[in-house]
Design goal:
Transmembrane segments: 46-65
Protein name: Transmembrane protein
Keywords: Membrane, Transmembrane, Transmembrane helix
Distance between the termini: 40 Å
Shape: flat
Structural class: alpha+beta
Strand order of the largest sheet: 1-2-3-4
Number of helices: 3
Oligomer: single chain
Strand content: 25-35%
Order of helices and strands: HHEEEEEEEH
Largest sheet: 4 strands, antiparallel
Number of domains: 1
């Protein structure tokens, strides 16, 4: 139970770390430019905002570096113990503590858990298939033009339907009756790259 809670906590932190680093990085740059370009912005409030942004950025980067070190250390240990050549530069699921790493030459993969150091070795045949999935969201957005509604010339903004795609994930279908699908949330670009990489790994 304790390990499960720890894994859940670290998984949550891993999901927050990257967007936190990006947003705090933008906030750091924005506030530093504001203070540099105008003396009116050199106030206590702006400086405090800058310090908070820098602190969050440093904390997020430190966390990601520690996660990367832990993951690479586990992959190196598995390679040493199992005489494999798992590629530690391609971790499916990272920065989550639960990830999959591949040895294309030996057609093996390892399911790794960096929190506990546990792992399982599988043949590539364990993966039955893979695909990308996402969620389509339709919203109403204000258009750039306005339309006249009566003879007085009164106008109102126009609205248009916009479709967006979000919540991208790579889905692996595996030969495991208890958990036949594994879901790895990621960005649109990353999911496209991993779909291509899976084709090369499993069909190459």
């Amino acid at each position: 139970m304790k390990n499960a809670l720890k894994i859940a906590g670290i998984s949550l932190a891993s999901g927050i770390a990257i967007p936190a680093a990006g947003l705090s990085g933008l906030a750091t740059i924005g506030s530093s430019l504001a203070m540099a370009l105008s003396s009116e912005n050199r106030t206590t409030d702006v400086f405090q905002f800058f310090l908070v942004a820098v602190s969050i950025l440093c904390l997020a980067m430190w966390y990601l570096v520690q996660q990367q070190k832990r993951a690479k250390s586990l992959v190196a240990s598995v390679n040493h113990q199992e005489c494999l050549g798992l590629d530690g530069t391609q971790l499916l699921g990272y920065p989550s503590p639960v990830f999959i790493v591949f040895d294309q030459a030996r057609r093996k993969l390892a399911q790794c858990q960096s929190v506990t150091g546990d792992y399982q070795i599988r043949d590539f045949s364990w993966v039955i298939g893979w695909h990308c999935e996402w969620r389509e969201v339709e919203t109403m957005e204000m258009g750039g033009s306005a339309r006249v509604v009566n003879a007085t010339g009164m106008s109102v903004p126009t609205f248009q339907r916009t479709r967006r795609f979000k919540d991208f994930a790579l889905i692996l279908t595996v030969a495991d009756a208890s958990q036949p699908t594994l879901r790895f949330p990621m960005s649109q670009r990353a999911v496209q790259e991993w779909c291509t990489r899976c084709n090369l790994l499993f069909n190459g």
